[in-house]
Write a sequence for this structure.
């Protein structure tokens, strides 16, 4: 517990649904609904779940780029969920994010030199000459020739742009980087290069990652622990080996079954989930997964299961356990 | 840069616009050589005679006028009104040449200031949103609901006669368009992921506006501004025509047009007798407006990222 870098308690983020001429609020999208988990120092926590389940919202709320509706966020034991914008600025150096889309995440009218140095400039770190030098080192480190620093983003490929985004995040020497589907938009061939870069940087700079993905294939490779999210809720969280050996939650089991297996002789039966993901504006009563669950029981549509601790570090929220 | 130049040369309309603008710039710069001033204030149009009626092109300076200048010790370098004289014997050519400087001054100053006001209010409104947006947009609506020319006239009547007063009126009622355009584009641009990334880095709001939002949104405003330079000059001329503009005898195109007010039709039996009093000031204003419009069009083509196929 005391080696938690980030600790989230009952985090809630609702977005208002506005309708009509007067833009009155007619309901709430429950993007993140009372979740709690820790991210340990130096680890990679993989956060997985279908599109729209609230992964990005979780990430942005942790960074206070979206205001939490309620709940607490602790960074190194300090509550950062209700401090003001100015107080939050000093934590920005420690908490960085890399976005999914390498195209829209770089300002098209800014030279990459200035993109990477922006954090340094914002916090008044280094003078302008050492800044340029630092930008050169960072580019070199992420695998882009430093003499490209005067170019604009459109002169780079998707993979290179993602490297530039990584350099931008690294510039402030953060303690944690949230990778929000940071490799999902990349070609498979480039994907593994970038993942390896993440791994190298982690040991080199002592980084902690929250690694978000919509399937388990990448998470399986890079994470130390896995958290599974469904409709704004964490349904299972466990160390990676335990998670893959002993997957408990029916939704998590379905996700695991969808991971391609390298050995062609071994055929795992892929579980196809019936129906669509319900709307987060109106989640099913009881267990949110019950309309699609194969193991559904009486109680499931009535009572919402709590996240229970089963083993050391293995938590699951399901009435079966 | 090369691409921009090539583009300009390829397009006849752009080329005409630029050449026209260049001619006006040269006229403004070389005004002291084209029309050497007689008075310490070069914007004071010299009179060629005491005639009330306009006099035709080529009209020589009258003897009594020559006597007045000579007794004042003024060297007379030009003694023919090549474009004729306006009402009161004012030299049309001189008024138009020095009026070019006035036109640039009016156009550039009013457009720059109103753009500045519009851009500042519009971007604050869009970026911070909430009650500030509500307040600023209601103010904008109020200003927009007042007819421009009426408002400008009322304001100059209150402030008094004079070009500076005209310019204040033009700025006071000319910023709303810019505010709206920039607000609209910042509202969409501020949702871009790179803005989110800048916030995550801890970049301050004003830096985000200045270094991310404005560079990505300002170009349509610049295009609009360059086109408005011409129309600002026309409006200033209209105000002069209505009698609230420059003081009597000041080199200003609006003044030249207002001199022609009583002579547009001509005298009985001689329709269009005083055509030169209307034609020369008119053609200067029309060409000036045309040149800025063509330049604005060109700017739009150059700056539109979709046409560049770059972004
Ligand atoms: N700014 C917002 N305003 C309103 N609704 C939002 C906003 N951001 C997200 N949502 C909604 O919240 C829910 C969760 O979205 P979120 O982006 O967190 O999902 P995600 O798990 O990251 O999905 P993806 O895999 O598509 O990125 C979605 O239903 C989404 O429509
Ligand atoms: S609680 Fe019931 S419905 Fe929900 S996952 Fe467990 S078994 Fe399925
Ligand atoms: Mg997302």
């Amino acid at each position: 517990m005391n080696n938690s870098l980030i600790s989230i308690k009952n985090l809630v983020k609702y977005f208002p649904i506005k309708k009509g001429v007067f833009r009155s609020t007619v309901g709430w999208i429950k993007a993140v609904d009372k979740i709690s988990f820790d991210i340990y120092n130096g680890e990679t926590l993989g956060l997985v779940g279908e599109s729209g389940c609230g992964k990005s919202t979780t990430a942005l709320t942790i960074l206070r780029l979206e205001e939490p509706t309620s709940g607490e966020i602790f960074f190194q034991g300090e509550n950062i969920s209700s401090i003001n914008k100015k107080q939050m600025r000093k934590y920005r150096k420690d908490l960085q994010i890399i976005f999914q889309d390498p195209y829209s995440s770089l300002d098209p009218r800014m030279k990459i030199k200035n993109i990477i140095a922006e954090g340094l400039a914002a916090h008044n770190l280094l003078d302008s000459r050492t800044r340029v030098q630092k930008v050169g080192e960072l580019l070199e480190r992420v695998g882009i020739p430093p003499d490209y620093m005067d170019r604009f983003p459109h002169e780079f490929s998707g993979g290179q742009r993602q490297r530039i985004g990584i350099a931008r995040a690294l510039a402030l020497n953060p303690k944690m980087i949230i990778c929000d589907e940071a490799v999902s938009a990349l070609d498979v061939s480039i994907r593994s290069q970038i993942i390896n870069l993440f791994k190298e940087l982690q040991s080199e700079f002592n980084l902690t990652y929250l690694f978000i993905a919509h399937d388990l294939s990448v998470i399986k490779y890079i994470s130390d622990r896995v958290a599974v999210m469904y409709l704004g809720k964490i349904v299972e969280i466990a160390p990676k080996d335990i998670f893959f050996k002993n997957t408990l939650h029916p939704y998590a089991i379905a996700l695991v079954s969808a991971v391609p297996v390298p050995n062609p002789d071994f055929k795992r039966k892929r579980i196809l989930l019936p129906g669509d993901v319900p709307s987060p504006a109106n989640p099913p009563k009881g267990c949110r997964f019950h309309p699609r669950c194969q193991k559904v029981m009486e109680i499931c549509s009535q009572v919402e299961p709590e996240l229970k601790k089963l083993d050391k570090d293995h938590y699951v929220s399901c009435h079966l356990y | 840069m090369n691409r921009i130049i090539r583009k300009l040369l390829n397009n006849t309309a752009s080329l005409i616009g630029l050449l026209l603008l260049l001619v006006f710039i040269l006229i403004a710069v070389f005004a002291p050589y084209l029309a050497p001033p007689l008075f310490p204030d070069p914007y004071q149009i010299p009179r060629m005679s005491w005639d009330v009626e306009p006099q035709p092109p080529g009209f020589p300076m009258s003897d009594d006028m020559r006597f007045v200048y000579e007794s004042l010790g003024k060297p007379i370098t030009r003694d023919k009104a090549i474009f004729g004289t306006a009402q009161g014997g004012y030299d049309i050519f001189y008024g138009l040449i020095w009026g070019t400087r006035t036109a640039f001054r009016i156009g550039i100053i009013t457009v720059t200031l109103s753009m500045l006001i519009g851009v500042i209010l519009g971007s604050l409104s869009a970026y911070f949103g909430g009650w500030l947006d509500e307040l600023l947009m209601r103010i904008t609506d109020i200003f927009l609901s007042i007819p421009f020319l009426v408002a400008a006239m009322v304001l100059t009547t209150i402030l008094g006669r004079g070009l500076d007063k005209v310019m204040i009126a033009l700025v006071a009622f000319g910023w709303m368009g810019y505010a709206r355009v920039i607000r609209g584009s910042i509202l969409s641009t501020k949702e871009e992921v790179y803005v989110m990334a800048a916030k995550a880095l801890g970049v301050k709001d004003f830096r985000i506006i200045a270094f991310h939002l404005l560079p990505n949104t300002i170009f349509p405003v610049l295009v609009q501004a360059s086109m408005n330079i011409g129309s600002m000059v026309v409006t200033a001329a209209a105000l002069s025509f209505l009698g609230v503009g420059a003081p009597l005898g000041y080199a200003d195109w609006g003044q030249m047009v207002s001199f022609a007010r009583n002579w547009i039709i001509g005298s009985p039996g001689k329709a269009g007798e005083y055509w030169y009093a209307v034609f020369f000031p008119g053609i200067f204003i029309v060409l000036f407006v045309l040149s800025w419009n063509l330049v604005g069009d060109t700017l739009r083509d150059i700056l539109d990222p979709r046409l560049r196929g770059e972004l």
The CA atoms of residues 69 and 84 of chain A lie 15 Å apart. The pocket of magnesium ion (ligand 3) is lined by residues A 55-56, 180-181 (CB under 6 Å).
